[in-house]
Amino acid sequence: MIDEYPLWKSRKFWLLILDTVVSIATFFVGRYVVQAEADVILFLIGALQPVFLMLIGAYTYQNVKLAE
Asked: What's the predicted TM-score (pTM) here?
């Protein structure tokens, strides 16, 4: 079954990678950007991150339903 559906074709995998990159970017923005700009950037990242997590959940739900 793993051979039939490689990991790099998984929408969940790529969203997880994107979320990880955004989390790392959040760290560096908070550390190295001027505080006034960092607050805005961190707010936007914080507002969008739950959307990505919901997409991962929706894709998982869809994949389970298709497998039934």
From this structure: 0.62
Calculate ∠ Cα 7-26-13, nearest 5°. 10
The CA distance from 11 to 24, in Å, is 20
If DSSP codes are grouped into helix, strand and coil, which group holds residue 2? Answer: coil
Find the length of the chain. 68
The token pair that represents 16 in the structure block: 């997880």
Distance, first Cα to last Cα, the chain:
15
Per-domain residue ranges of the chain? 10-67
pLDDT tens digits, 3-48: 566 777 777 788 888 888 988 988 898 888 888 888 888 898 889 8
What tokens appear for 51 in the block? 């959307």
